[in-house]
């Protein structure tokens, strides 16, 4: 079946540090891949997405590249800010059928000044 | 556009009580879904709907009922609340289930005592 595995947190970084959150997936066919972010007390919102192999999604300084050969979609940011403190979820959606999003368990990021 | 709205924001129930969590979207999305979020478990799909009159079970459907009489509304009913249903509940909608981004509501925090 479809599944997403992401690194466990929490992750604590100092401001301006480099961020990587690992995400790997298992799926048949060619899924679309997403990163969602959840700020404290809020619902999830889409951060970035990629719909085919070698696509790079980017938004707000975050990037992730769809790597079919390693079935990965790692999230990166070159210089994190305190305002990036949140929970980050990797997710996949198949491009056929009625299969909804499948989420990883989330990684909590805390950025300290 | 209000997007996806959920009511109530907070709710406390006693074991055995029933209630309905409301969800509405004004984006004319075909696809709607309910998730629960528990610490360390990520988001788990409860029920989903691919259009008015069509619903299906997700990963954790027991103890919950849904119906979809209109495109806009997708209420979630707890028939007889149990402490194990203490969680944060999120409703989401999408133009399509196939490879598309989901838009999330702000969530309902439910406590069952």
Key traits:
heterodimer, A: six-stranded mixed beta sheet, four-stranded antiparallel beta sheet, 50% strand, globular, B: 113 residues, mainly beta, seven-stranded mixed beta sheet, 11 strands, 51% strand
Terminal-residue CA separation of chain B = 36 Å
- How much of the polypeptide of chain A forms β-strand, as a percent range? over 45%
Shape of chain A: globular
Number of helices of chain A: 0
Tally of strands of chain A: 12
Task: Please give a structural write-up.
The complex is a heterodimer of chains A (113) and B (113). Chain A is mostly beta strands and 113 residues long. In chain A, 0% of the residues lie in helices and 50% in strands. Chain A is built from no helices and twelve strands. In chain A, strands 2, 5, 6, 10, 11 and 12 form a six-stranded mixed beta sheet that branches. In chain A, strand 5 (32-38) and strand 6 form a beta hairpin. Chain A is globular. Chain A starts with a strand and ends with a strand. In chain B, a hairpin with a 3-residue loop joins strand 4 (31-38) and strand 5 (42-51). In chain B, the strands form two sheets. In chain B, strands 2, 4, 5, 6, 9, 10 and 11 form a seven-stranded mixed beta sheet that branches. A four-stranded antiparallel beta sheet of chain B has the order 1-3-8-7, with no helix packed on it. Chain B starts with a strand and ends with a strand. By secondary structure, chain B is an all-beta fold. The mean pLDDT of chain B is 93. In chain B, 0% of the residues lie in helices and 51% in strands. The chains are: A mainly beta (113), B mainly beta (113). The A-B interface holds A 31-32, 34, 36, 42-46, 49, 51, 89, 93-101, 103-106 and B 4, 31, 33, 35, 40-43, 45, 48, 50, 56, 58, 90, 92, 97-107.
């Amino acid at each position: 079946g479809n599944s997403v595995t992401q690194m466990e947190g929490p992750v604590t970084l100092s401001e301006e540090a480099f961020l990587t959150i690992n995400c790997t997936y298992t799926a048949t066919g060619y899924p679309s891949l997403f990163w969602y972010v959840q700020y404290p007390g809020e619902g999830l919102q889409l951060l970035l997405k990629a719909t085919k192999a070698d696509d790079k999604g980017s938004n707000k300084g975050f990037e992730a590249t769809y790597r079919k050969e390693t079935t990965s979609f790692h999230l990166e940011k070159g210089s994190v800010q305190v305002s990036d403190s949140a929970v980050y979820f990797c997710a996949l959606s198949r491009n056929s059928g009625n299969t909804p999003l499948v989420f990883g368990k989330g990684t909590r990021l805390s950025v300290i000044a | 556009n209000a997007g996806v709205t959920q009511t109530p924001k907070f709710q406390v129930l006693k074991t055995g009580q029933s209630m309905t969590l409301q969800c509405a979207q004004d984006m004319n999305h075909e696809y709607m879904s309910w998730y629960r979020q528990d610490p360390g478990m990520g988001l788990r799909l409860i029920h989903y709907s691919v259009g008015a009159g069509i619903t299906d079970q997700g990963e954790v459907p027991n103890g919950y009922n849904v119906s979809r009489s209109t495109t806009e509304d997708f209420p979630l009913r707890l028939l007889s609340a149990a402490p194990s249903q203490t969680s944060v509940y999120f409703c989401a909608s999408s133009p399509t289930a196939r490879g598309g981004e989901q838009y999330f509501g702000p969530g309902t925090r439910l406590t069952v005592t």
